[in-house]
Amino acid sequence: MTKMEVIAVQLEPNSNNPLVWLKDEGQKVFLPIAIGNFEAAAISLALHDELPPRPIAYDLLCAIMDGFNVQVEQVLVSALKDETFFAEIKLLRDGETIIIDSRPSDALALALRVNAPVFVADQVIEEAGLSIAGEDPRLPVESDADDEEIAAIVEAVEEDASEALGQVAQQVVALKARLQEAVELEEYEEAARLRDEIGRLEHSIEK
After folding, report:
1. Which of 35, 75, 80, 103 would staple 107 via disulfide (CB 3.0–4.6 Å)?
2. Cβ–Cβ under 8 Å, residues 120 and 77
3. Does residue 117 register a pLDDT over 90?
4. Under DSSP, is residue 179 helix (H, G, I), strand (E, B) or coil?
5. Structural domain spans, the chain
């Protein structure tokens, strides 16, 4: 396997879908991996040392692992099957090694947050790596609007989050109406369940 570095997130010109780019230490091989918009935003934020307005799932995962004294020893982009990349996260806790299957995007977003090394299986590089001739270390796909593109991805993710919160608020209103009905019908067990569900949803909105 080869040690590589996450160097950029860019939009693929033809599809306008985000790619995360990895590069080997010798700057001779690049590896592009297609990822989702949310993962692109998470990786880009980590690359630029920027904090999201509120902690996202990867930040929460880091906090949980830290609380349980779990370390990310390394991540490995392990395979490429039917145009789908696979990855593994190698964890270390109390001297015990644990291997977790993962999507590459999730593994890379986590690795960047804990400064864990990234490796790619040699077979993956042979199948999907891009060799660069000469001494030019630039990305095969360059974009002057890279920062603007990533900002647009982050904005889209934030809009999706706002929309999701709006849907949760509507659900709370509907549940409160059902709660009132359950109380009037003296269905107290159902009312208790609805009360707990409302509390859980309201707590998620406040975060």
Report:
1. 75
2. yes
3. yes
4. helix
5. 2-140, 160-206
- Tell which CATH architecture fits domain 2-140: Roll (3.10)
Listed in sequence order, the residues at least 6 apart from 116 whose beta carbon sits closer than 8 Å to its beta carbon are: 72, 73, 74, 75, 110
Q: 87: alpha, beta or left, given left = phi > 0 and alpha = psi -120 to 50?
A: beta
Residue 182 tokens read as 């359950």
What is residue 186's DSSP assignment?
Answer: T
How confident is the model over 44-95, as pLDDT tens digits?
888 888 777 777 888 888 888 888 889 999 999 999 998 899 999 999 998 8
Residue whose pair of structure tokens reads 């269905």 in the numeric block: 187
**Residues 6 or more apart whose Cβ sits within 8 Å of residue 74:** 90, 111, 116, 117, 118, 119
For residue 24, which of 138, 119, 107, 111 has the smallest C-alpha distance?
119
Regarding predicted confidence, which is higher, 128 or 198? 128
Using alpha carbons, select from 127, 107, 128, 126 the residue that is nearest to residue 32.
128
Token pair for 155: 């904005």
pLDDT in tens, 82-108: 889 999 999 999 889 999 999 999 999
Among candidates 43, 46, 110, which has minimal Cα distance to 74? 110
